[in-house]
Amino acid sequence: MSELLRLDRVTKTYRQRRREVTAVDDVSLTLGSEQIVCLVGESGSGKSTVGRIVTGLTDPTRGDVVYDGVRARELGRRGLRKRRLGVQLIQQDPYASLNPGLTVQEALVAPLRRHLRLPSAAARARANDLLADVGLTPDTFARKYPHELSGGQRQRVAIARSLTVEPRVLVADEAVSMLDVSIRVSVLQKLRGLCEDRQLAVLFITHDLAVASQFGRDHSIAVMQHGRIVEHRPTHELVSDPQHAYTRALLAAARHEGLRSGSTAEPPVVHLHRTDRSRREPAPDIKKKE
After folding, report:
1. Which residues contact 140 (CB under 8 A, 6 or more apart)?
2. Residue range 174-202: mean pLDDT, rounded
3. Which of 40, 86, 97, 141 has its CA 20 to 30 A from that of 280?
């Protein structure tokens, strides 16, 4: 497995009024070809900032991003742009990530024309192939606008768009968190199959440990807390024998016995950052005094 991208002791800080806020604190992470790393943590843990640094949308305050063994600061402007083009982002919100004024085909043709310099006919043919790859019939969906699609269909289009420039690394930032539970499994299965077929490295960012354990099976999970990676181990080891207290807390919050026992059944999607109302004690009866 060759190394495609590496974060080397990366830190990202922001100025907030008179104080400095550390979003990412001394994080090191490696993505190799055909490798899936699931980055799990609660809201505000810094995982999305890591994703933005990996894609080049945010520069680290300290530390280095290394592309194919070459540090980003050693690359010229053109070289850095080319390397970053090979790292594509699938955003969380399928309702905001697509241009409402472009048809599905136009949204896919644009990067093919701009970055790969394909002729119009070849770009349209390639766009139709990508739609078929993500499970959408070109004859039905190519001329539709985003508002005519369901959430799951929009996210499939977003996945197809991320593949237009033939990336080597995908960053999926909460890519299914806004979809209905019934749609999530099929979208995740399609995404994983596409990544395996294309031998892509994937950084899969989620707050949901149950989803991470399924998408990252046979790979690894990194757990983030307060901007730091507190545990990074193979998925089956982390789920069956967590070493860090925060990982154990996430597993306890998931409350799914199949997750701990290694059941092959698809676990239900459990939002770890929310309080489970079904486990609350019933409110006591309040009787009016006579």
Report:
1. none
2. 87
3. 40
